Structures are given as C-alpha cells and as structure tokens.
Predict the structure.
Amino acid sequence: MEQHVKHYCGIFGTYGTPEAAHNTVLGLHALQHRGEESCGITTGDGKHIHTHKGMGQVSDVFADASDIARLTGHLAIGHNRYSTTGSDNIVNAQPFVAECRDGSIAVAHNGNLTNTADLRSSMQETGAIFQTTTDSELILHLIARSPEPEISNRVADALKQIQGAYSLVFATENKLIAARDPHGFRPLCLGQLGDAWVVASESCALDIISARYIRDIEPGELVVIDENGLRTHTFASVEKKAFCIFEYIYFSRPDSLIFGDNVDKTRRSLGKQLAKEHPADADIVIAVPDSSNTAAMGYAEASGIKHEIGLIRNHYVGRTFITPGQGNRGAKVRLKFNPVRGVLNGKRVVVIEDSIVRGTTLRHLVRMIRDAGALEVHVRISCPPIVAPCFYGIDFQTTKELIAGESTVEEIREHLGVDSLGYLSLEGMIKVAPNAGRQYCTACFSRDYPIPVGDTVSKLILEK
Ligand code: 5GP
Ligand code: MG
C-alpha cells in the first residue's frame, strides 16, 4: 500500500557557495540518524543540475571523491531516506528529479502526505504516469502541471493541493526553494555561513559546517533563494500548529535545536518529570543508549539515584547485517547492546527507555540485564504509551504492531518480565515540553489527529 512508503528523513539545502556539494555531504552526515537506507544530492550550476544518489549511508554513497567532484554548482539539496521494509528501493531514493517544460527540478522531502491516493488516481485518470510510489514524485507532477509562469508560484500552487506533513527542499538550475507545511509537523531551520544560505532538518547539520542558526522556516512558509537573495512567501495560513512531539522524545539529536528549542534540555526535563511521576526504590539508573541517555540523566538527577552506564552499544552494526523477520530480533538486540556485568550485578536497576514501539528491544534487553545479575528491573519510559499509528512521517503504521495499541500497562509489564513499569503521562509530557502553550501533534499517544486522514488510511487505524 502506498501509504506504507514513509518518509522519515533528513533534508538539507544550501545556496551561494562553490562548496555546495561538499557542505551538503557534511550536512547529511550530521543528519544520518534520520535515515540510513539511501541518500543523495542534487546540485545546480546555473545551467544544469547534477544528481548522485544510492542505497546506504552517506559514507558509502559518497565514498568516492570523484562522485562529489561531479556535483558542481553553487547550490545543492540533499536527502537521507528512512524507509520501512519492502520499500527500500533505489527508485525511491531522493532527491527525485523531473524535467519540466522550462528546466529541471529536484525535490527532497521529510514527512508524509495524507491525500496522495486521491491526487494520484485523479492524475492517472488524465494520463499521468508514475515511476514510484513516493509523495515526492507526486509533488513534482503537481508543480509541472501548474499554469503559473514563476517557479515559486508553481511550487505554492502544488503545496496548496497537498495535505499532511512536509518539510521540503527543491533545487532548480539556479534556485534553492524550501517550504514547511502549514501545521509545521516536521522541523526545518534556516542558517547562514558567510554569504551562503543553509536549510536543514536539524541545527546539528548547521553546526557541522559552522553555519549560524538564524530561525526556523515557519509553518506555511515558502522561501526562495537565488541570485536576488532570499524571498519569503506565505503560501497557506496557519490554523493550528502541530509540531511532532516525538522529535523531542526520540527522533532528533540532543545537540539540535528543534522547533527553536534545545532537544537535550527537553529530554532531561522529560526524565525529571518521569522521576516525579514514577519514582523507584533502586540502586542505579541506566539508559538504553543512545536515544535515552539524556532522559536517564534527568531521571537520575531528580530521583537522586546514581546514574551508571549499564549497557554498551555497538556503533558498527550495519543494517545489512540484519535480515528482517521476527525470528532473529533477539540476535539483533545482542549485536547492538551488551550489558556491563560489573555495573548491574547485585543491583536494583531503573532502566530508562525513550519509547516502546513493538516491545521487542526491551524484552530482550531485560533478559540480558537479569542475566548480568540485576536483582530487580524497573522500566521507566520517557513518553506515554504509543497507542495509535502516525500518518505524518513516523514509522508506526498500524495499531496492530504497537504493543500499547492492544495491551494495558500491566500486560506490557508482564510481557517484558519486569518488576515495575511506568510511562510518562500525556499531561506531564506536554507540561515539560518547551513553550508549554505551543501546539504539538500528539496523535500517536492521544489519537487526536490534527489532519483527518483518508478512508484507506483510517481503516488502518481501526485495523486490529
Ligand atoms: P521496540 O523494540 O519497542 O519496537 O522499539 C523501541 C526502540 O526503538 C526504542 O529503543 C526507541 O529508541 C526506538 N525507536 C522509537 N521509535 C522508533 C522508530 O520510529 N524507528 C526506529 N527504528 N526505532 C525507534
Ligand atoms: Mg532506543
């Protein structure tokens, strides 16, 4: 099903430097955690665009310096793609490029559209041919069909027809264009490096090239950068912001600013709030590295329980090592984590985890922690139970695959085989999230969907 092609990705763009391709490679390195299935870069040199993309991580796809050297030009966009099993296909790798009547255009997308099925079938009825099932291709079709003479107006035209979550960067031969959906589901920030402009999913991609964070691209904003400088347009009015709160919980890097606020600080606050809501009588607090590290520090600080490193993560485990399938999930967890026996032996342990999706990681980890001699295991989760799928770009697709979609906390505790289990409350999470008055999307925790999803999609929500 096409809505299964998720875009849970990292995007980057820069304008105004002969180092455009090189800086984009660095930016994609910093955004690697947002997707490691495929990546690619398109540059524009004023006359032509050039693209290089492939399956795998940035260090593999851009291993050969001559591939980067061929990406000439003063502007570039880049993409790291995360996809789910089955759609990890080179034809879906981005940037996606199209030849239109007055030149080339490339797009890189983070998010997920919710009205693609309808748009696609109405276009197919009038003869459109699609080569992929990606939202990105659909966006390019819409741009190509717009009667507007100006490219920025054609992009705005296309964006007015799509619904859902999107942070986008486009490259033409001589323009960099960036846009964010009117709800602002996914992040996108703007920076500067000397005279060059930079846009990126997360500010850590600005840091890596020593660019300065200027501000976020606003929900409903379209930015065009070319030889005349930067121009900003509002292509849609913002009724209700819906920043994805899961960016703070799991997805983004702690050293990034997301939605203008610090991820590290937010995760610590989540951990502190978790300690208030679910204290534990224990000797040590450990994190499931790396995504829970900062929340665990917050929990330890607020509870006064000693913070220890009880699990070591192997950073060299490539995805290629692991074939999909339930059968070898245990082996996958063992490849990735090893317990520190000297830390855990004889201890009552609080394990902080940022989230439980299917519950497989923790179930295996808990066994390993007990085998290493832990006397008690108390699991604390720095977000509420994930009860519902995300249709805006995060990889939870059906209620069926979510352990909390069907089970109570007590049932999950039993399934994990732990002495106690506590999740952060929805109210507690919102209370400590930055700028408490700001609107967040909490649909995966609350089933409160900011954008109604189509029939096919809502069937998935109800599917049990
Ligand atoms: P589970 O084993 O419960 O399915 O997954 C939970 C683990 O996956 C946690 O360690 C969490 O940090 C991580 N995680 C949370 N959300 C996602 C996601 O959308 N994709 C991936 N790959 N991992 C996630
Ligand atoms: Mg994790």
User: Anything to note?
Assistant: The two ends are 17 Å apart (CA to CA). The chain has two domains: 9-239, 262-440+451-461. The mean pLDDT is 91. The longest helix spans residues 263-277.
